[in-house]
Amino acid sequence: MDWTALDRLGAYAKCKPPLRSPESTKRLWEAVLAGKIDFIAADHAPYSRADKDTATIWEAGWGMPGIQTMIPVLISDGILKRGWDLSAFVRFTSTQCARVFGVYGPKGTIRVGADGDLAVIDLNGSWTVRSEDLFYREHWSALEGETLNGRIEQTIVRGRVVYDRGTIKVDPGFGQFVTPHRTSATLPPQLAAVYSSGCWSPGAQCIEPRSPQRRVRRRARDQMSTRPPGNSSTIRMNSTPKMIWWNWVNDTASFSRTRM
Fold first, then answer.
1. Class of 5-168 per CATH?
2. Is 43 a catalytic residue?
3. Of 2, 43, 51, 122, which is the active-site residue?
């Protein structure tokens, strides 16, 4: 999806960061296929239709729902359309995420002793995005009506089928909190140095706004009075800015290698 969707969808395609040009979308896919981006995450923003159907586009909410369509789009546009290697797809959608968030072992791998989290995908199938099939609070998608090649048939969590061909098979509350266990050995090289420096110690924030030598650590209890959970800090390493998004409640962070 690129900025041409704004002509068709109006405020329903308004999001932050905004949709980019077709050329930017093409280059982003090239970076993904070349392994230059570590992993993907969905900024799922389930605004209501009332939030989008405003007098002007400037008043509409910034965002759109996307968590249910994220992996199907990668299957359709990445694996089947662009010939993306399946092993690279798994690293991009699972393994690297688990390593960065400190849950690799139980999550992000298929091996004896792991949690048994699997997705069963029919690469010969297809799925047409329809509002009635969405599990969002607000039943709409910017991709509604689009047919995606490949179809997720089942998802399995801790060895149990939780989704089967359009039906949720477990009750609310089946999910469990996963405690991160971070060590520098489980992280990509770009993050290992940050972790080893102590910037990821519980309750601390590391900010290097001008040089790798300048660090400011603040206790979470001091930050909570002035910064909401999920606030961001910029770190510069080797003159390339990186963004770490902090969640003070769970002391977790997501990492982007994209130059800002």
1. alpha beta
2. yes
3. 43
